[in-house]
Each structure stands twice: as structure tokens, then as C-alpha cells.
Design a protein that fits this description.
By secondary structure, the protein is an alpha/beta fold. The chain is about 35% helix and about 25% strand. It has eleven helices and 15 strands. Strands 1, 2, 3, 4, 5, 6, 13, 14 and 15 form a nine-stranded mixed β-sheet that branches. The protein has a four-stranded antiparallel β-sheet with strand order 9-11-7-12, covered by helices on one side. The protein has a two-stranded antiparallel ribbon with strand order 8-10. A hairpin with a 5-residue loop joins strand 1 and strand 2. The longest helix is centred in the last third of the chain and has 22 residues, at about 290-310. The protein is globular. The two termini are about 25 Å apart. The protein binds glyoxylic acid and manganese (II) ion (2 copies). One manganese (II) ion (MN) binds near residues 80, 92 and 351.
Length: about 400
């Protein structure tokens, strides 16, 4: 299955994936998912947020409701198929294909589940296009307001509402998803985005927690001017203020044993021979606990305001998304760690599982990543470890369903 989608959305120059919400690659992947569901005779639905769900042993919402279609008893598997800019092949897709593969394996073995099982592909997990991570699962769970989501814009200024309409979706259907009410547990398998499993010598691990994290947009606004004729002391240049903030944030994160990343910056008007009028930088910040993250953000913003004042430029701060610390369901994760004899580990990466953990008992399995590299074309997992992940997920389904 990974080979079948290998070419979709891959940039030939970098080898990375550009699978963004509702772009052509995303649309092709949506078709692939629906076809995989149909090939297995699973009832398929796409909710109003673009989340795709394939049901085994129960009809899709409004469908036949075959065996036990009502009540919160379904076991949900799955992950996402979208990517960060130039993302790798495994972050997201490994969880989706492993879910189908685990169900195939169980079917071959003659296993008959006692509860409905669903495989989900969540929309826009990475937030690469509209800025809010896990938008699909947040909308489904009711933790992101539809009107806020629909007004989000991409780099071309198109709103999510416009983009969905152009793809034949009705923005009025965006909001809490009824199908989630039928889910009693969610298990997301994901490639590890670190090297804990390399160090422990295990192919598969169980997640304990997700670090709190979020994205803050810092807009430094000054005055565009001529690069040659404007004396340095007359400028209101937002770039030095931005640069000083990046350097300060990096030092603050090191001190706090936290993470601060500026992976995106937009400079306006972007002329090589013009003082910029505006510099917008996106701070992705993460820390081991909510208090540590709040302190990190406070100190970074103090530094940013001081830098802006010194450069005589304005500073606007917008929280684009914020995710508090997640502790996965203790009983569920301990049960999975025991049945798999797998180690437990926390992660600094965000996941739909973190969002769903607020509304349903949730756990995650991680598959070893030899280099730990992720959000990069170099992301990798060995085939044997991917197979071990499928086996582990099949064991989990036997245990829970
Ligand atoms: C999602 O992958 C994130 O942690 O940014
Ligand atoms: Mn990711
Ligand atoms: Mn992911």
C-alpha cells in the first residue's frame, strides 16, 4: 500500500511530499482511501470536515448499521495522509496502511471481531496549508469552532470555506462529527519521530504522553524604505528585531530544555534592495509540561517586545494553535504495553490521537525509526519494523475487539 501511494504528491527535486489539505495530491489520496475501503467491503463515509472513515461490522452513519451500529462501542484505528512541506513517506500514511493491513491479517486468520471496527483518515493533520494542526480531528471532536476554521486562509488568501466549496464540499457541514459518538476507543499507529526505540532495541513502543505545543505568529511591522539611501539610524526595519527574537528564543529553549523553532518566515515586500515593511515568523514551541511551555512563551515574547522596541517597529502576536499536554488513557496504554511487551515513551510530536484523547480513551503505537528523522524526506522505517507494527496492531485489535 505504501508503494501504491509513493508517487502521490512527491516533489521530484526534493523527494519530499507536498500533500496539503484539499490540494490535488490530497484529493488523489482521498480516492485511494475510499477505494481501499471498497475493496474490503467496508462501509465508507466522509464527514463534513473531510475526515474519511471506513467501517467494518457497522454501516456508515445513516447506512445499514449492520452489527451494533449504535452506541460508543467501535474500535477506531487510523491516522492521516497529509504531510508537512517536503514531508516523509511514513508520518501519517504508516498508520493508515497498517490499519488496513492489520484488518487484512485478522481476516486471513479468521478472526471475527465482537465490536465494530473503523479506520479513519483525518483531514489536515499537519496544518500545513491553513496553519491549524489537527483541524479535521479538532472539528470532529468539537474543540475547534467551525466559523474559526472556515475563515482560515492559505498563502493565496483563499479561505478553507472557499477551498472546500471548490472541491464540492458543503462548508455548512463543518462541525462536530456524529460518527465519533460511536467510537469507544482509538489506537493510532505512527512512525516514531525520535530514537527512543533505537536505544531500547524494540521495533514497537506505546505512547505515554504528548508534550504541550503550539504555533504563535509574530508580525513585526516597520516601514519599507530604500536600502541604499536610508541611513541605518533612520530606519524602522523589522528584520533585525525578528532575527534577534529567533536567536533569543533558541537560547531560551536550550535553557528550559524545551523546543523553539522558526520554520516559516514571510518578508514583505521581499525586495533585496528594500528595507522590509513587515516580517512574519511562525514560532513552534513545545515543552515537557504546560507550565514550562507558558514560561518559555512569556520569556520569548518579552525578548521579542524588547527587540521590537529597540528597532522602533510594531509587534503583533497571534496564537494559531495551542495543544495542552496529553496523557494517554492509563488503563488502555498499560494494557497495550503488557499485551505487546513493548516499552512506553513520550513524544514531542502532535497527533490526532492527542485531540481525540479528550473525548475517547486513546492510545498510540510507535514504530522504530532508525535515524529518528521526521518531517523530512529522510524519514524512514525498515520494512521488517513496519511489519512488526502491523502485527502489533493486529494483536491490539484481538485484545480490544
Ligand atoms: C505534527 O506532526 C507536529 O507535531 O507538528
Ligand atoms: Mn507530522
Ligand atoms: Mn503524523
Amino acid at each position: 500500500m505504501l508503494a501504491a501511494i509513493e508517487r502521490i504528491g512527491r516533489d521530484r527535486r526534493t523527494g519530499g511530499y507536498r500533500r496539503f489539505a484539499w490540494n490535488d495530491a490530497d484529493m488523489e489520496l482521498r480516492e485511494w482511501f475510499a477505494d481501499e475501503a471498497a475493496a474490503r467491503g467496508m462501509a465508507y463515509e466522509e464527514d463534513g470536515n473531510g475526515n474519511q472513515v471506513a467501517w467494518l461490522g457497522a454501516g456508515a452513519s445513516g447506512g445499514d448499521g449492520a452489527s451494533g451500529g449504535e452506541g460508543a462501542d467501535a474500535l477506531l484505528l487510523g491516522s492521516h495522509l497529509d504531510s508537512v512541506p517536503d514531508g516523509g513517506a511514513y508520518d501519517g500514511p504508516l498508520g493508515v496502511v497498517s490499519s488496513f493491513a492489520a484488518l487484512d491479517q485478522l481476516r486471513r486468520d479468521g478472526f471475527v471481531p465482537s465490536r465494530p471496527i473503523a479506520v479513519a483518515c483525518f483531514a489536515d493533520e499537519e496544518g500545513a496549508r491553513f496553519g491549524v494542526a489537527c483541524a479535521g480531528s479538532r472539528l470532529a471532536a468539537g474543540t475547534l469552532a467551525p466559523e474559526k476554521a472556515l475563515a482560515l486562509t492559505d498563502v493565496d488568501g483563499c479561505t478553507l470555506a472557499e477551498v472546500m466549496r471548490a472541491r464540492g464540499r458543503d462548508p455548512r457541514r463543518v462541525g462536530r462529527s456524529a460518527w465519533l459518538d460511536r467510537v469507544g476507543a482509538f489506537v493510532e499507529l505512527h512512525v516514531e519521530q525520535g530514537r527512543a526505540l533505537v536505544h531500547s532495541g524494540d521495533a514497537v513502543g506505546v505512547a505515554t504522553a504528548i508534550w504541550p505545543h503550539g504555533r504563535w505568529r509574530l508580525d513585526f511591522s516597520g516601514r519599507a524604505d530604500h536600502a541604499g539611501t536610508t541611513p541605518m539610524e533612520d530606519r524602522r526595519d523589522p528584520m533585525p528585531a525578528y532575527a534577534a527574537t529567533v536567536v533569543a528564543a533558541t537560547a531560551r529553549a536550550v535553557d528550559a530544555q524545551a523546543r523553539a523553532t522558526f520554520g516559516r518566515v514571510v518578508v514583505e515586500p521581499g525586495g533585496a534592495n528594500a528595507v522590509p515593511s513587515r516580517v512574519s515568523g511562525w514560532l513552534d514551541a513545545r515543552a515537557p509540561d504546560d507550565g514550562a511551555l507558558a514560561r518559555l512563551i512569556d520569556t520569548v515574547l518579552v525578548d521579542a517586545r524588547a527587540a521590537a522596541a529597540q528597532a522602533r517597529v510594531g509587534l503583533g502576536v497571534t496564537v494559531e494553535s495551542a495543544s495542552p499536554a496529553v496523557g494517554f488513557d492509563t488503563a488502555l496504554r498499560e494494557r497495550l504495553a503488557a499485551v505487546l511487551a513493548a516499552p512506553s515513551l513520550p513524544t514531542g510530536a502532535g497527533h490526532d490521537a492527542g485531540v481525540l484523547s479528550r473525548v475517547v480513551p486513546t492510545a498510540m503505537l510507535f514504530v522504530r525509526n532508525p535515524t529518528g528523522v521526521s518531517h523530512s524526506p529522510d524519514e524512514h522505517a525498515d520494512d521488517a519494523d513496519c511489519a512488526a507494527g502491523v502485527d502489533a496492531l493486529a494483536t491490539v485489535v484481538r485484545e480490544l475487539a
